[in-house]
Amino acid sequence: MINGPQELHPFETFFPPDTTRLILGSIPPFRFTRGPGEKVKEDGDFPFYYGSRYNLFWKLLGEVFQEPLTDINAIQALLLKQKIGIADIVKQCTRKQKKASPRQQTLT
Questions:
Q1: Are 30 and 24 a contacting pair, CB within 8 Å?
Q2: What is the Cα–Cα distance from 44 to 2, expressed in whole angstroms?
Q3: Using CA atoms, how far apart are residues 108 and 105, in angstroms rounded to an integer?
Q4: Of 56, 53, 27, 58, the residue nearest 40 (C-alpha)
Q5: Which of 7, 73, 92, 94 has the smallest count of CB within 10 Å of its CB?
Q6: Distances in Å between the alpha carbon of 66 and those of 34, 38, 62, 69, 98?
């Protein structure tokens, strides 16, 4: 049974013109997909891919490339410099539970 509301992916794909690599995900956590004009729900989150304050993706990528990735501008600058695109495969979905795990989602 589907319990939640229909969710829409909040971010545009990010593809530098000369992209040679792609980071591909599914869909952001529930609190990011609530609808037009609704803000990120927790302090420390930011409105971009892997922007949950609990997600360590950008910290890890910053360590790999030896660049501090402290905000969206720094992240996008690194992606441009390294010719990395980023996108998710789910445009809209309804989740069985308010969790990020694909096993707990019904996707449309």
A1: no
A2: 30
A3: 10
A4: 53
A5: 73
A6: 34, 34, 6, 9, 34
Per-residue model confidence as pLDDT tens digits over 38-59: 666 678 888 899 998 889 999 9
DSSP 20-81: -EEEEE----GGG-S-TTPPP-STT--SSTT--TT--HHHHHHHHHT----SHHHHHHHHHH
Q: What is d(CA 52, CA 43) in angstroms, rounded to the nearest whole number? A: 9
Residue 7's pLDDT is 82
